[in-house]
Amino acid sequence: MKIIVAIKQVPERDAQIRVDAAAHWIDEVGLQWALNESDAYALEEALQLKEKHGGEVIVLTAGPERVGPTIREALAKGADRAIHVDCGDLGARDALGVARLLAAAARPEAADLLLTGLQSDDLGQGQTGVIVAELLGLPHATLILHVEKTDNGLSVKRELEEGWFQQIELPTPAVLTVQSGGSKLRYATLMGIKRAKMKEVRTVTAAELGVDAAPVAVLERVALPQKQKSTQILPGSPKEAAAALVEKLKFEARVL
Amino acid sequence: MSGIWVVLEEREGRIGRISLEAVAAAQLLGAQTGQPVNAAVLGAQTGALAAEAAALPLARVVRIEHGLLGAYTADGFVLALQQLIAMESPTHLVFPHTYQVRDYAPALAARLGQVLIGDVTAIGEGPVFTRQLMQGRLAGAYRHAGGGPCFVSVQAGAFRADGLGAGSAEVSLFTPAIEATQIRTRPGERFRASAQTVDLGSAPMIVSVGRGIKDAANLPMAQELATALGAELAASRPICDAGWLPMERQVGSSGQTVSPKLYVAIGISGAIQHLVGIKGSQCIVAINKDPDAPIFEAADYGIVGDLFEVVPALTEAVKAGKG
Ligand SMILES: Cc1cc2nc3c(=O)[nH]c(=O)nc-3n(C[C@H](O)[C@H](O)[C@H](O)COP(=O)(O)OP(=O)(O)OC[C@H]3O[C@@H](n4cnc5c(N)ncnc54)[C@H](O)[C@@H]3O)c2cc1C
Ligand SMILES: Nc1ncnc2c1ncn2[C@@H]1O[C@H](COP(=O)(O)O)[C@@H](O)[C@H]1O
Partners of B207 in the beta sheet? Predict the structure, then answer.
């Protein structure tokens, strides 16, 4: 099976968030970056499918030069090669704009399966994979925990709300968006890290793909969320705060 | 282009609460743009749902009925709604942000060269749509540019459905053209994982841990607090994803919905998918080192600090308070 996994580099989870001077996005200076969480699960699913059925795993990412280490990380975990859509204006593109880049880069590969994470931890749109499917004219399924190859295509386990699941069958080629938790993530081995340095990373630009940036959904401004609730923050040392909290819970909230 | 259309979703035989909230959001848009608000229901049989919808303050309700819409598929829903849009040329389409909507609405929008502004929490003059970024740590203001319908989905709980009022909408039937061969996926029946052995739903006290706990080896520290309180131990999704606690102890949109007297969130950031599971709690306490963590917006009491210092101190204080 030839599998493409779309991976996105996002700010490290614990990173300090500051709004940039123009209030258009966050200040990226000094930020640490990481592989988007659900994309790590998508990559894991792809690697396991390859181990079972053979084939090739290609990671695909759109972003500026800084995504390099994230690509290497995916290669170190076992992806065979990478396609980097080099674009410095990711922030000016909406989900359709990014999906157009990914679809244009993926199309000539004619892969059997294209996996994405279900949601990016920074923009949280939860859309890109579904749009890529639409652009490529492929069937899709979302929130997938397990993928099994069948004689005619795939059988996938889809998560529904409130602890329900559903099995879906679909033909290949197809696009799936992968939910976290379906399998245990692997770490890159030392050998993997060494090998990753030799693997192919092909770079294409947005212009070469013929995709422009004009968005339909325009992010005009970002801000810290407005506080609506007045939470009582208990000050002092941990010991003082803990004692004060127990008092509050007993005599004010009356839940102890 | 005219009219705002809400796509209603069924939940256990009735219009789901979040769909009613979508109607409320559509009315905000209607007030701003002077457009009437209509609704569509989709399925193989939509009579009961349409009757319920007709009593809402809507101008029109369209029953989009087809045998191939009985079991939800993205292909079926996209085809059906594409035809509704071609007929009605709406200015806006408003959806509840459910798992089902996430599955088809982005494809429907893309087919028309549009983009869904998803999981919206507020609608301001303009209209300007607010949605969360960075897992709730940032708010983004979005505007729809260019021609064509504007697609919006609303977050659960963000708009109030209580004051919707009553109405008597005109109901009509529409049979879209869909061929069986156009449906490429074959959905199976819904099923649940193996029987639950803990019932967090009725637990009066819950101590819940998130990724801030860092390692499975630190769980006993939280368990000690739970024991001191007589509470059940629960967790956010990443803890269960990692296998540190079983899935059945996961709280949130894809886990358990809880309503304890006391919910103590330790090292949990407060992503919306977690918060929807704890809304029914009588009292929420948050312990987090980040004073700007969204969990503090949901909490009644908070301690800003290192959980590895605060939790043991709290365990001691609870024990002392009981003694
Ligand atoms: C479709 C979908 C369904 C989902 N369903 C669920 C669900 O049912 N339940 C759920 O929980 N999530 C769910 N999620 C995931 C959700 O979006 C969040 O990713 C998740 O809730 C984050 O978990 P967390 O708060 O434990 O981790 P993080 O967001 O990483 O937060 C960790 C927190 O710990 C704090 N912290 C770190 N170290 C310390 C310390 N030493 N002392 C004090 N505080 C510290 C940090 O400041 C941070 O706020 C779902 C997501 C999607 C897209
Ligand atoms: N710039 C990007 N490069 C590669 N993949 C991406 C990019 N943006 C989004 N994706 C993929 O699409 C998924 C959903 O992203 P989003 O729609 O932004 O929530 C992510 O988990 C990635 O797999």
Answer: B233, B264
